[in-house]
Prior knowledge:
The protein is of the alpha/beta class. It has helices at residues 7-19, 25-35, 39-50, 55-59, 83-90, 108-114, 128-138, 182-187, 201-213, 229-238; strands spanning 61-64, 67-70, 98-102, 120-125, 144-147, 162-167, 214-224, 241-248, 253-260.
Amino acid sequence: MSVPLSPVDLGDLVNRLRAAGCVFAEDEAALIVETARNAAEREAMTVRRISGVPLEYVVGWAWFRGLRIAVDPGVFIPRRRTEFLVEQALRVTASGAVVVDLCCGAGALGAAVAAERQVSLYAADIEPAAVRCAERNLAPWQGAVSQGDLYDALPAELRGRIDVLLSNVPYVPTDEIRLLPPEARLYEPRVTLDGGPDGLSTFRRVAAGAAEWLAPGGHLFVEMSDQQAPPAHAVLLEHGLTAEIAVDDELGANVVHGTYQP
């Protein structure tokens, strides 16, 4: 149970966060106050945030399409722009579909789809911390989470049966990681960010296996940058999928959508 603050103390908390460079200091202060169970915990959270630790790690969760997604240190933090990927996937996700969240991180994509559709949900990630976190987040929808490298982590019986494959692969070119905000560059695992020389290394591997794992008429959705979306579109075509690019200018989001039609 959170402990309320007086207006003076709340103002002091906001000022401390603002002085540390937190642009949305009022909102962050409110979340810290809401989450902390006592004054000591609130102060510890404040100190961590002022030191530069991402807010989501400080409070232990992130909002994603109206869901409170648990986020542990060392797990990729779901971004609001990725909600557009879920929006696109929901357009083609029918009740009873087999849905896989590959490179799942905290499992936000799978959870968001399962919250709006009755599906058979699976997720996988190479990072043990992500798997543990996703297991908690997907438990309400009986999501099965496994650890491993891309398709190797999935149950063999899913081969050729996946209706909707969500894969928020790492897509930052290696040389551009140094340009990321410190919160991402210093705190999130490099494996969740580094997409290789052109940012498409992991995506190419996902695309290469898509036709083998997707059901006829199955769909693959991935997020990409403005620059990478066209070459990613071409990669899907090379691997026998039809492809299209959807853009949300408000969120700054690009989603490449492939469909397998054997």
